[in-house]
Amino acid sequence: MEKDVLLKYMSSVDRARTVEEACRAAVSAIADYTRFSNPSLFLVDPEGQNLVLVAHAGFTPGTLTIPRGRGISWISLETGKSALIDDVTLEEDYLPGLEGSRCELNVPVIWRDRKIGVFSIESKVPGAFTTDDARFANLLAAILGSVIVHLETETRLSESLKDLEMTARYRSLFLELFFELFSMRERDVFLDRVVDILGEVMKYDKIYLFLRQTRSGPLWLRAFRGKNVEEKAIRDILEEGRGITGRAIRTGTAVFCNDTSKDPDFYLDDTRTQSEAALPIRFGDTLVHRIITAVAGERDLRDLCGETVRLLRDNTRYNFVEVYEVLSRITGEVRMIGGGPEEDGSCREQEDLLRERGWGLVGLAARTGRLVNVPDVRDSPQYVPIKRTTRSELDVPIEFGGNLYGILSLESDIPGAFTEDDERAMSILSGHLGVLWAHRELLDRTERQAMQDPLTGLWNRRFIFGRLDAEIARCERYGCRFSIAMIDLVNFKSVNDRFGHTTGDRVLAETGSFFARSLRACDMVARYGGDEFLVLLPEADLDEAMCIVERLLERCRGLTFCGGEVQVSFDFGIASFPADGRDSGSLVRKADENLYGRRGIITRPEGG
């Protein structure tokens, strides 16, 4: 009987999509399928100070909210044990529930260590409930506790996904706008793309962009997306300051309206408009603007950071300016990529000193992700004295889209040199640098993915041919030699036939990883295609290349997969520059010929 009841109860609460639905379903199922005809359920409120009635069946409870510490329900929840009261008239902690109640059973709803609420079940018959009833009710409470936690987790995940989706949309918007900005040279075309991208990415129904032809000239509608606006409405907004946009023009501040029916300034140009935002676009001939304009075209990250440092040093009173790349947010480890001593040795000494002292104030900014402004470094135990004359330091995180990329570090010989204006200006600059940094990383990652084999992670055929051409040019210029090796997996088709392509892919991936780990640091391995790998061996003639490859294959002799059922073996062929060819195509063909036995083939059969 209990089994049938449990199945019906679980089926009822499992169908719930919210915590409220689950609570109502649980109470209804208890009333319908058990002999507990008067159940009610109280949950702990968000502040943890009250038990609040959320569901009941068969009667209307006399108590809707129970303050912490009062009543049998709180005692049951705090102790984590059921409370079985045979006669409530003799219990001073009893709070009125069912009219005429004589017996009460309170069962805590707990999931692991979390106290969620209490089932309260009452009867007008003294001694109506047994210890078996308490045991069964505890089982029902545990099931509901599990369902509630599961639903709350789903809700949090859903909300997190919405936040992530919105963040991704904003990141996509900013990056796309920057791509357009970098690629377009015509201002009018760029402005049209701005409103198009805003509409496509942010899904806004109507977008209007008002600009001045000159700094002192009148505003005019330059670009729009959505419903066209009549000339009279434009004049009313721009000349008379009507509407939400007019208010933003008058005040010079952003205006956000989420319910146009409640905003007296809303200008009724479209009855379907429910919300509106108007944001002033300011142009300033500021240092930050000049720096961003100057460095935006830098393709290399070090060049971007170096030029930023140079411009800040030349145009500000800051004595020292440096940019660090954040390597670890946990430890605060950083690496200088802009500024610092010109001598590499001194730069390394500076980084070693920072490492020994916990990465200093720069590391503090990296670990916390927050701006650090120290008016007098002599009062800071985290400060690492690299420049003896420094008295104050400002460290500003460079971030975008939740990712911390670097730290902009500024030092001054003057105590308290960095004001709120400095903090604000450097934060704006760092924000722009974060977008540029993200843009560079995205381009680098995209380029790298285009040059990598997706299965093995090794360089692909396109990239290795580029490296071959570069190595040929270098060797022709300096009279050097190098060799290449073509390596082929023996009977690889039988692996696919016997174990399937998934296992075959794993063999290729792990073999490629083994090659990459086992070769010299200067060597380069790529997946040439199928089950063939191409290895570039700089500064190695034919004999040296033979020794390198033989050592590699000797290490591979014990390489097995699928619990030892798959053992791989290899053929290889070698070609050397310039003896076997003076261009990449000739060298690869020669190595391939040697691989297949027409000259100089060496085979390593399975098992040696």
Provide an overview of this structure.
With 608 residues, this protein is α+β, with helices and mostly antiparallel strands. It folds into 4 domains: 2-155, GAF domain (Beta-Lactamase, 2-Layer Sandwich), CATH 3.30.450.40; 187-278, GAF domain (Beta-Lactamase, 2-Layer Sandwich); 287-449, GAF domain (Beta-Lactamase); 461-604, 2-Layer Sandwich (Alpha-Beta Plaits). It is built from 17 helices and 22 strands. It has a 6-stranded antiparallel β-sheet, with helices on both faces. Strands 12-11-15-14-13 form a 5-stranded antiparallel β-sheet. The protein is extended and about 105 Å long.
Instruction: Report the sheet with the most strands, covering strand number, pairing sense and barrel closure.
Output: 6 strands, antiparallel
Strands of the widest sheet, in order across it, are 3-2-1-6-5-4
Mean pLDDT: 84
Structural class: alpha+beta
CATH 2nd-level architecture of the largest domain: 2-Layer Sandwich
Uncertain runs: 597-608
Number of domains: 4
Total number of helices: 17
For the record, what CATH class of the largest domain applies? Answer: Alpha Beta
| Total number of beta strands | 22
What CATH calls the topology of the largest domain is: Beta-Lactamase
What general outline do the C-alpha atoms trace?
extended
The gyration radius over C-alpha positions equals: 36 Å
For the terminal residues, how far apart are their CA atoms?
69 Å
Residue share in β-strands:
15-25%
Q: What is the CATH superfamily label of the largest domain?
A: GAF domain
Proportion in helices: 40-55%
